Amino acid sequence: MSFVYEKIMGGKKGLTGFIILATLILIIFPLFLDAFRLNLVGKYLTYAFVAVSLVLLWGYGGILSLGQGIFFGLGGYAMAMFLKLEASSPENTTIQSTPGIPDFMDWNQLTELPWFWEPFTSFTFTILAVLIVPAAFAYIIGSAMFKRRVGGVYFAIITQVIAVILTVLIVGQQGVTGGINGITDLRTLHGWDITSDSAKNIFYFINCGLLLTVILASRFILTSKFGRILLAIRDKEDRVRFSGYDVANFKIFIFCFAAMISAIGGAMFTLQVGFMSPSFVGIVPSIEMVIFAAVGGRMSLIGAVYGTLLINYGKSAFSESFPEMWLFLIGGLFIAVVMLFPNGLAGLWNDYGHHITNKFVFISKAFSKLVPQSLLKKVEDAR
Amino acid sequence: MDAYTSSELISIFAMQGFSGISLFSVLLLMALGLAIIFGQMGVINMAHGEFMTVGAYTTYFMATLTETYFPAFMPYYFVFAIVVAFIVAGILGYLAEFALIRHLYKRPLDTLLATWGLSLIMQQSFRSLFGAREVSPTLPEWLLGSYQPTETIYIPINGMFVLGLTAVVTLGVYYLMFKSRWGLRVRATTQNRVMSGAVGINTKKVDRYTFALGCGIAGIAGAAFTTIASTGPTTGTLYIVDTFMVVVFGGAASLFGTIASAFSIAQAQSILEFFISGSMAKVYTLLALVVILMFKPEGLFASKVRR
């Protein structure tokens, strides 16, 4: 029991934060938000998977990946391919010249399903693909880079270039990927209508459950010996290497794990929102996801979730009323978060939060002193 | 490829080659600035593309100004526009270094994010100042048209002009970096910052001027860019990734490497574009670069010094 409490929940402080977050997303949001807003929050929470993965990777591992959108996209596309195949059964697509293939393929004069689409008719395969394909891809990138001791800025740029390659590829090969519009018009999952409000509600709770699980799993990794070595690598890579650890393997593992988390987020995004497009794969979304983690606090798994929610709330609020101000604001935020408060909201809370609570205690104590003792006695007597 | 005769193929290669030269020129001008900054300070300036856009908009602004007030001056304004683009982008770069970059030299990853924020702010400023629509300046007569050495080959004059400009700037940078006292100080700082400081070089000042110079060259790239395409608020972001690749592939801090890698990337992309679709040409070029970089992470012409 103490193992669970210390290693997974992160002790008293970690547990409190976790419970507050869980209450917020599992109870307060569903109670007070309408179906549309709740679905929106659900969408934001799928980004939070990426933000959490960046906390692991960047905050603790010191590896800045500017291409987490790659993995978000891979996961999302895998799920979208499955749903699309189900949506384009021969009965649904009788008006096409080749029934039984997705509509965009028909528009692009394809007459049969490409080979890599075939296995996505199986749901089991799709789930495995969501988890394994991004991790395997991350393994290839990671082992090629980290084994050759490429890191820091170089790594950031290479991941960015891979994100560009993937986006250009998806947009360019519209016959097999759906092009710039992405894969749209997803309707059912095993015959169950996923566009209804009740389905979106269910996805919201699944989403929350998965996110909380991911946070716990990540915390387990970070509090383990592995996490401590990861932190050591971030701070003094050479010294860890000279102590006999194979630094590259640690980095590869955390990169693959982060890729897997991001992919789960992507798959949940497809389910929650009902489409997937290349605009969630490229450089811009990838960097935006870094700022979610940075604002929340790059060292705080739970902070990353708040950061994601806050920025996305700000984005939708601002782009409704002052669209031109939003870029100034987010640009300024990038600069401010780096220069003024590098540990984000979580850092601010750690620095000033206890002052606030202390002040509360102080004020209430001071207040009780102001009240004459005789008065208190009278109150007690009256009881 | 069987459909083409050999003489047609030669013409295709020549013409695509020349159109690749325009791309090469812009990429090289962009990459020169980025490489100097990255080589010296280990800082990647994500807003570099926006400094190029500053140059392009400056040229547009100069063109409109000349057209309205001094129409007789039109044939010559472009040369001045290049100088003004350099100065404006340089001053903005100086200010950016002063306000932002110098606080972050110890944290290169954070600089990536901060300069990305800067680029967003600059993009929105362009949009507010010049509108979201793409603009292009009225070019002087002598830049238009093309030169035709054989019947099947057309060489656009603007491409040749840009190439000439790039050559002049590259030579200028070479002279500045390798022949002047200032260049000596820059190279000393690049090699060993602490020791340079100890022998009396004001490394902070060197940093600031290097950054301003790099941004100024990006401004020139912007002026050159206006001759081959129109400028919009997000033009810079289209080129920034390619420019990174040029710098990384060439091996940072190697002038020759930067030239060679800009040339090979631009030509590969341009010649491939004729035979396969533009997007696939880009995919193959970038993919090849990533694969090569996986085997040679330090780039093609990295200095042999172990840091």
Biggest sheet features of chain A: 2 strands, antiparallel
Overall geometry of chain B comes to globular
Q: What series of H and E elements makes up the topology of chain B?
A: HHHHEEHHHHHHH
Enumerate the strands of the largest sheet of chain A in spatial order, edge to edge or round the barrel: 1-2
The total of beta strands of chain A comes to 2
Q: What is the string of SSEs of chain A from the N terminus onward?
A: HHHHHHHHEEHHHHHHHHH
- Taken together, the total number of domains of chain A comes to 2
Major sheet description of chain B: 2 strands, antiparallel
Question: Most extensive interface: pair and counts?
Answer: A-B, 42 and 41 residues
Largest sheet, spatial ordering of strands of chain B:
1-2
Question: What features would you describe in this structure?
Answer:
- The complex is a heterodimer of chains A (383) and B (307).
- Chain A starts with a helix and ends with a helix.
- Chain A is built from 17 helices and 2 strands.
- The model of chain A has no long low-confidence stretch (mean pLDDT 86).
- Chain A folds into 2 domains: 7-342, no CATH class; 345-383.
- In chain A, α3 (35-60) packs across α13, α4 (68-87) runs antiparallel to α6 (123-146) and α6 (123-146) runs antiparallel to α12.
- With 383 residues, chain A is mostly helical.
- In chain A, 75% of the residues lie in helices and 1% in strands.
- Chain A has a two-stranded antiparallel sheet.
- In chain A, a hairpin with a 2-residue loop joins β1 (188-189) and β2.
- Chain B is mainly alpha-helical and 307 residues long.
- Chain B has a domain at 26-234.
- Chain B is built from 11 helices and 2 strands; from the N terminus they run ααααββααααααα.
- A two-stranded antiparallel sheet of chain B has the order 1-2.
- In chain B, a hairpin with a 7-residue loop joins β1 (146-147) and β2 (155-156).
- Chain B is globular and about 65 Å long.
- The mean pLDDT of chain B is 84.
- Classes of the chains: A mainly alpha (383), B mainly alpha (307).
- The A-B interface holds A 58, 62, 64, 66, 144-145, 148-150, 152-154, 156-158, 160-162, 164-165, 168-169, 171-172, 283, 287, 290-291, 294, 324, 327-328, 330-335, 337-339, 342 and B 38, 42, 44, 100, 103-104, 107-114, 116-121, 123-124, 127-128, 237, 241, 244-245, 248, 277, 279-280, 282-283, 286-287, 289-290, 293-294, 297.
